[in-house]
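Format notes (please read before filing issues)

Several people have asked whether sequences and structure tokens are stored in separate files. They are not. Every record keeps both together, in the order shown below: the sequence lines, then the token lines. Line labels are part of the format and must not be stripped during preprocessing.
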Amino acid sequence: MPRYISCCAATASVLKLSRPAPSRNVACKVNMQKLFTLVAILIFIEYSCVQKTPEYVKRFPHLEYDTASIAILPFQELPSWIFDSTYVSDTLLQAELFFIDEYVTRSVEDFNNWQILNNSKSPWNIDLDKWRYRKQIIVARNRMGEKEVWVNCFCDSHYDSWRSSLVKVEDGGTCHFNFKVNLTLKKFYDFHVNPAA
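Then the structure lines:
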């Protein structure tokens, strides 16, 4: 009995009851009900305010990246023109994400320079700053054990499922380009810009 009374006394002080209860047992029951109600409300608020982690972030929880502009897609059911059947799934390191950004810049500079030299009358130009391209990245390891990524860049924002589904477009010009990076050998290749519509 003394434990029950001390528990109720502590509960009453937490809830800061302003008037004395007529009976200790009745007051303790009322205070316990208020306490349980308060705890239930707090638990409800906690769980309703917490946002669920999207599936595309769960794949690489150890990486920090801007999910508004980058999606790392799973390695499964890929078209054979991306990676053939000899490739297997792999993961990324944080530093490798920075390398990928560098290769986006370098590959676009190479493309723009080539256009100026070889298509001087009407050169195509990819403007990374103007269009704020989004990137889809797929990570794989080739049969020689080298880590490679396929990077798909696009400037259109009307693809609702771009974080979970591969964006495949037949045209779009410089608004859509992709390439591969061999992170082990530190080189990019297969740079492709979509034809204009």
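For reference, the curators noted about this record: Strands lie at 70-73, 88-89, 134-141, 147-154, 176-182, 187-193. The chain is about 35% helix and 20% strand.
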